[in-house]
Amino acid sequence: xxxxxxxxxxxxxxxxxxxxxxxxxxxxxxxxxxxxxxxxxxxxxxxxxxxxxxxxxxxxxxxxxxxxxxxxxxxxxxxxxxxxxxxxxxxxxxxxxxxxxxxxxxxxxxxxxxxxxxxxxxxxxxxxxxxxxxxxxxx
Length: 139
Prior knowledge:
about 35% strand, about 140 residues
């Protein structure tokens, strides 16, 4: 089982990478995290090889493997879930995703495939073109 999440404020996969590199320094182990109020009820399934798929500009564009879930408390003393992520970000084929709040479960059969080896560093298509191609099922 996987999760899907909007990467709010990111214009590109590179933005997400940069933001995570800065934010990960806050944690003792240096691993990136996504902190959320809700704890996934399907935690055992997610921790059995699941990833978080990031939606950037209306398209699923990349994923990160989920390593564990840590309990953290904010300044407001409310319990939260820190989804601890592998630092490596794997680019995927793009897939359109409508806006939503929070995170959602994403079944393995509904996940976009990783880009083939050697294509991970290719320059991305312009967002509008990528969305149009995804909508008609070309990519």
